[in-house]
Recover the amino acids of this structure.
């Protein structure tokens, strides 16, 4: 419900830094940055005393799974898309203020666009492009986002039937 979203935003995201940090953390999860990698953390003074630790920092494997855009079948063919990643990664990167990564990993990334067109409606891709263009401060980048959105709109009838037509 939109009322829940509004209430949660007012309560938990009054601080812009916390808002961006939260969206950035979710984006890191969806990109699989910490998958199989020890994530650094700092022990509190109470933890150091309780466990008799000399060091102030440590690494922990958070058991974060990889987040591919497409889950492959045993034969290597695309079995199903990671729709959660495809829909949410652009949203969280934009709200975290990580626009360079948004462009590199999502909007100007052929593999990501192919996966999103294959497992999500074209309107979802266009919404991502339009939202990024509206937030973009550089006119050249905003124009490039608009050109990509226009090209996808014009070829929409073909892309709906065959997302593999994206490259040509």
């Amino acid at each position: 419900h939109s009322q829940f979203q509004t209430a949660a935003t007012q309560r938990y995201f009054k601080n812009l830094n916390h808002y961006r940090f939260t969206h950035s953390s979710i984006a890191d999860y969806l990109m699989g940055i910490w998958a199989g990698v020890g994530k650094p953390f700092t022990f509190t003074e109470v933890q150091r005393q309780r466990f008799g630790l000399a060091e102030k920092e440590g690494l922990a494997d958070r058991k974060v799974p990889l987040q591919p855009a497409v889950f492959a079948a045993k034969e290597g063919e695309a079995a199903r898309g990671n729709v959660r990643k495809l829909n949410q990664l652009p949203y969280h990167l934009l709200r975290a203020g990580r626009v360079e990564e948004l462009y590199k990993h999502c909007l100007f990334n052929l593999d990501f666009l192919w996966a999103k067109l294959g497992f999500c409606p074209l309107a979802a891709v266009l919404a991502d492009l339009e939202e990024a263009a509206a937030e973009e401060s550089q006119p050249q980048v905003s124009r490039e986002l608009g050109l990509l959105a226009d090209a996808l709109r014009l070829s929409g009838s073909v892309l709906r039937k065959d997302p593999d037509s994206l490259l040509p």
